[in-house]
Amino acid sequence: MAEPTFGTGPSTGGSWSAPGRVNLIGEHTDYNNGLALPIAIGQRTTVEAVPADDGVYRVSSAGHGQEVLFGPQTQPGEVTGWAAYVAGTVWALGELGVPLVPGSFTISSEVPTGAGLSSSAALECAVACGVLGLAGRGLDRHSLATATQRAENVYVGAPTGGMDQLASAFGRAGSALLVDVGADSLEQVPFELTESGLELLVIDTGSSHSHADGEYGARRRSCEQAAAALGVASLRDVQDAPLAETLASLAGLDDGTIARRVRHVITENARVERTVALLREKRITEIGPLLLASHESLRDDYEVTVPVLDLAVDAAMASGALGARMTGGGFGGSVIALVDAGLSESVAEGVSAAFVDAGHAAPTTRSVVPADGAGPLLPDTTP
User: Short name of one Pfam family for this protein (predicted)?
Assistant: First the structure.
């Protein structure tokens, strides 16, 4: 496949890609207008696309069976399953006024599905680059991230925040991305693992999760209910209030569950701020306890971990990790572990042994580093 070419008109075709992401810290904060600190990773989803003259999008992907067809006027609800992420991206870009050039899209991916590494955002962002490339149009990265999030929220029906798409669009090698949703700001924060003698391991537990299920939506509704009870637009607006006072004001809502959800969000934002401060001071080895505290909060207050995730964290810590926590939406997926480079193999072996002893299949463990975001993307030329 030839490299994509851009001009004043449509491209003859090409190859575009976008990365998955690991969220270093800041979980379930994005839809509360809070803080998150993801990195894009080297594992990418690639779209090879060529224009077609029959007015139809043809989408195929290894492992997903039959080719899926839809027209440029597709609407939410028309396409379901994995191809809804593709059709939804076409729909969202069309809503922005991007000229839609139907074509054949062949998709391949190194980002495992269901592992909490945002395979959906990688797919959406790669497809968006392909749609733009065929049209010969540019779009700024923030608009690309917003459009692909809308595809997932409205077309697919998954009530996710925008952190995944922002990470896939704005990722940069050697950096983590500080996402401040409430302030609508992004900042690249140095995250140089190699020069610090560290590795970041992703432990894929093999327990799949789904953002579109009821539990994720239930957590979001709890946060919205708490914000309404506190008289604020979002939980980000109470992050500086005395925690005990805030929680006490929620005591009458239920059995204490909503208060625990709020405690996680407020303390998680504080952990992100502390992590960023340490990274700026090049004290990366000191963020380990914050990662572990994040996991404990997600386990006890937000209740989105499952036993296999807790097992992976406990085993990684027992094997010498500096810190570990679940990453992604939870209810399955992956754990990250920050380790000294010389201990990465022994940590992986320790986690595998713990899984086998517990009667589980050994997890897949890979080392990741911050990587560049989606592209190639033609610069936006909108006046």
Answer: GHMP_kinases_C
